[in-house]
Write a structure and sequence with these properties.
ATP binding, mainly alpha, cytoplasm, Helix Hairpins, HisE, 6 helices, 74% helix, phosphoribosyl-ATP diphosphatase activity, binds phosphoribosyl ATP
Length: 117
């Protein structure tokens, strides 16, 4: 049985596991098998999971049941983290970018971009 982990610790712990799997046997680990197959395979999985997440969101809108949406979003986040890990990046890089954008209105940012071009 898997041990419980605090949700605040998940990204850090998962990042360590994904890094360690780069040196693991592809036959004994799904993440190692993805690293072994390479970036194109990982990106193919991200694309698949993205489509599954979109379909789950549309289903949730119709049925009012969001369980599948949460499940598919977890698959998408997971495979995106594998892609970042494969490229030598991690969730901290993305969180830093989101932190940089914090309190910056998306409309203001877009307007600033337009006035620069
Ligand atoms: N969070 C996940 C996680 N989420 C999803 N998956 C796997 O991602 C795959 C999703 O692929 P699909 O749904 O497309 O199913 P599939 O048809 O079997 O996939 P393909 O044959 O097309 O590759 C499944 O095999 C899931 O088990 C995950 N595999 C691993 N993790 C984490 O990564 C850790 C390391 O995993 P291993 O490397 O396998 O030990 C685990 O302890 C978990 O914490």
């Amino acid at each position: 049985m898997s041990k419980a982990i605090d949700t605040r610790d998940v990204l850090g712990a998962l990042t360590d596991v994904l890094e360690a799997r780069k040196a693991a046997d592809p036959d004994s680990s799904y993440v190692a098998s993805l690293h072994h197959k390479g970036l194109n395979k990982i990106l193919e999985k991200v694309g698949e999971e993205c489509t599954e997440m979109l379909l789950a969101a549309k289903d949730a809108q119709q049925t009012g049941n969001a369980d599948e949406l949460v499940y598919e979003t977890a698959d998408l986040w997971f495979h995106s983290l594998v892609a970042l890990s494969h490229m030598g990046l991690g969730p901290d890089d993305v969180l830093r970018e989101l932190a940089r954008r914090f309190d910056l209105s998306g409309l203001e940012e877009k307007a600033a971009r337009k006035s620069q071009s």
